[in-house]
Amino acid sequence: MEAALIARLEKAVERLEKLEVGPGARPTGASAAAHGHAAAPAAAAAAPAASSGSTSATLAEWDHLMSEHLGPVLALVQYLPQEAQASMQNFDKAFQAARRVLEVSAAAKQPDSPEQLQTLLAPVAEAMGAVSAASEARRVSCPHHLKVLAEAVAALGFLAYTGHGCGMPPPRQHVADSWQSAEFFSNKLLMEFRGKDENQVAWVRGLKSFIQQLEQFVVRNCPTGLRFNPAGQPLAAAMAAAPGASKPAAPAPPPVRKPGAPPPPPPPPPGPPPKPLSPEELAASSSGRGGAAGGGGGGGGDVSKLFAELSKGEAITSGLRKVTDDMKAKNRPDRSGTVPASAAPAPATAASASGKAAAAPSGPPKLELQGVKWAVENWSGRQDLVLENEAPKNSVYVYGCRDCVLQVKGKVNAVSLDKCVRVGVVFGDVISGVEAVNCSSVQLQVTGAVPTLSIEKTDGAQLFVSKRCAADPNFQVVTAKCSAVNVVVVPDPDTNSEEDPQEHPVPEQFISTFQGGKLVTVAAAHSGA
């Protein structure tokens, strides 16, 4: 086994040395004198060959990681929605570009400026940006798939780590944090497709396993960031000499055509873009009214109400009053009694028919530390809010937010949500407790330990707790005046088990009886027939 491994490494070293010597040769059109000095670039390229063994081993391990762990995930792309398939392609491109970064860094010196490092990481950042932009798109059929990919691809940020003062966590922690954020959305996919579509479940689990293996790769090969070669070439020369330097920008070669053959037909022109909906059409579609429903009766009523009236049959005329001859305007000499147009009541608008819709956030968005309290207020449509807390005595107060996801990093004293709609909060250890009041459709995920989760006057709450919390006998979930509250126990992310999350609904119906003169209340239990 060891002999075979040594033989593979020696072959890889030989190939790498050929690649290093090849770019150092002069162009074919150089003078004869240049050929006499061709040995000089070869000698210069042989200097970093001393570390080529470790470089080849790192790239070989990276290739094994891609083929054995990312390959099965890519094989399941065909079962994903169309938007997720396109985002998965950019996800793959990001990791392909990361391989070239590892290859170039092994042959190059430490960059002289951050701008040079940014140039090296530009292809990776471009692919990561495409994945992130797809997750921010509106009206997509698979938002959770796109969010998982956007959070997972952020693990490649470890390539930009340059030391303790760069403002980033160490590479291993950065990779672990990326999946911690992605797991918030992956748990939703597991709950949605478990027992319904095993391909989707396998894709989520495979992606999780891949990020975990990436973390181990970083520990072994890049614990302090990219490794550069002190005896290597300048970064610009190493990037130009890399085998895949021109591959991303190279256009596809034109098809070879035999002499005398007719030219290939031009591609069909793109079709016209769909006509954008007018504000009136948008309002009509959101309220469930068609174009014909609003014009027949003059009042623009709902289609369902129209069919409900028609289903009455002959009873539909029971509310009509008989019109006598003296009531008819045509029999009056002065034509009095006609109803002016201004007297007709204005039709109800879509906004008034929407009922008790929650008001939009008022006031400017805010995320700032006020004394010992973090104020997170009036945010809307932000899925990437991150709060970096350093002092455990600080608390977090989230107010008036809508359609947002907040990640709290660091230990905090307490977390409170007030008047929030469709807001998700991911947090670690909490000293005091977490509460949600006057909220709707909120989601809370505990990755550490918390003594109490208090939910009050809230319609819809998903509570994702760790096994550490579930195993603590002092952990409590307190609810009052709530509905649709579920507690989901999430498996430990550090283990590679394929255990599914366990969902436990909080009872909403109770039965009270007198037993021995005392009122005893228990949760109602229903057994299926």
UniProtKB/TrEMBL annotation:
PROSITE patterns documented for this protein: C_CAP_COFACTOR_C, CAP_1
**Bias regions of kind Gly residues — which residues?**
288-300
* InterPro entries per record: Adenylate_cyclase-assoc_CAP (IPR001837), Adenylate_cyclase-assoc_CAP_C (IPR013912), C-CAP_CF_C-like (IPR017901), CAP/MinC_C (IPR016098), CAP_C_sf (IPR036223), CAP_CS_N (IPR018106), CAP_N (IPR053950), CAP_N_sf (IPR036222)
A Gene Ontology biological process in which this protein takes part is: actin filament organization
Stretches the record annotates as Disordered: 239-300, 319-364
Ranges of Low complexity compositional bias? Answer: 239-249, 340-361
Report the sequence similarity comment from the record: Belongs to the CAP family.
The name this protein carries in UniProt is: C-CAP/cofactor C-like domain-containing protein
Q: Which organism is it from?
A: Chlamydomonas reinhardtii
Traced from the root, the source organism's taxonomic lineage reads:
Eukaryota, Viridiplantae, Chlorophyta, core chlorophytes, Chlorophyceae
